[in-house]
Design brief:
By secondary structure, the chain is mainly α. The chain contains three helices and four strands; from the N terminus they run αααββββ. 64% of the residues lie in helices and 6% in strands. Helix 2 (43-98) runs antiparallel to helix 3 (106-124).
C-alpha cells in the first residue's frame, strides 16, 4: 500500500500543531506558575483549589480573631495590673495612716484615696477598639461610675 506525500505532510502538520498547542499550554503554566488556569484545565483540580481557597479564608479569619483576642487580653491584663498597682499604693497609704508619727493630715489621705478610686474606676472602664473590657457581655455600656455623692461605685450593666 502506498502512502502519498500529501498524507505524510498532513500527518506531520497535524502532529506539529498538536505539539505547538501542548507547548503553548506548558508555557502558560510556566508564565502563570499555575497548573490550573481555568476550570476546564482540570475540573477536579479546580474543585480542590476552590476548597483550599475557602479553607484559607476561614484560617485567615481564625487568625484575625486570635490576634484580636490576644490584643484584648493584653489590654485587660494591662488594666488589671494598673488596678493592682493602685490597690497596693492604697494599702501602703493605709498602713502609713495608722502610723501616729506620720504628720500628714487625714484630709491629704482622703484626697489620695479619692484619686486612687478615680484611677481604678477609669482603669475598670478601659476600652479596646470601642468595647469596654470589663462590661460583661454588653461591651457598649460603660460598666462603672462613681456616684454623684462620691460615696460608692455604681455598676451600669446587669450582666457582669
Amino acid at each position: 500500500m502506498r502512502i502519498s506525500d500529501r498524507n505524510v505532510q498532513q500527518s506531520f502538520l497535524n502532529h506539529l500543531t498538536s505539539l505547538r498547542s501542548s507547548m503553548g499550554e506548558v508555557q502558560r503554566k510556566i508564565i502563570t506558575q499555575k497548573k490550573v488556569n481555568k476550570p476546564s484545565d482540570s475540573p477536579l483540580g479546580s474543585g480542590k483549589i476552590i476548597g483550599f481557597n475557602e479553607r484559607l479564608k476561614s484560617i485567615t479569619s481564625f487568625k484575625k480573631n486570635i490576634e484580636n483576642g490576644i490584643a484584648f487580653t493584653n489590654y485587660s491584663i494591662s488594666a488589671l495590673e494598673g488596678i493592682q498597682n493602685q490597690t497596693q499604693m492604697m494599702i501602703v497609704d493605709t498602713v502609713n495612716l495608722k502610723n501616729p508619727t506620720n504628720a500628714t493630715s487625714v484630709q491629704d489621705y482622703a484626697q489620695k484615696f479619692n484619686n486612687y478610686l478615680d484611677t481604678i474606676v477609669n482603669l475598670a472602664n478601659s476600652q479596646f477598639e470601642g468595647q469596654y473590657l470589663f462590661a460583661g457581655t454588653d461591651y457598649s455600656v460603660k460598666p462603672y461610675e462613681i456616684s454623684a455623692s462620691g460615696q460608692s461605685v455604681n455598676m451600669n450593666s446587669s450582666d457582669l
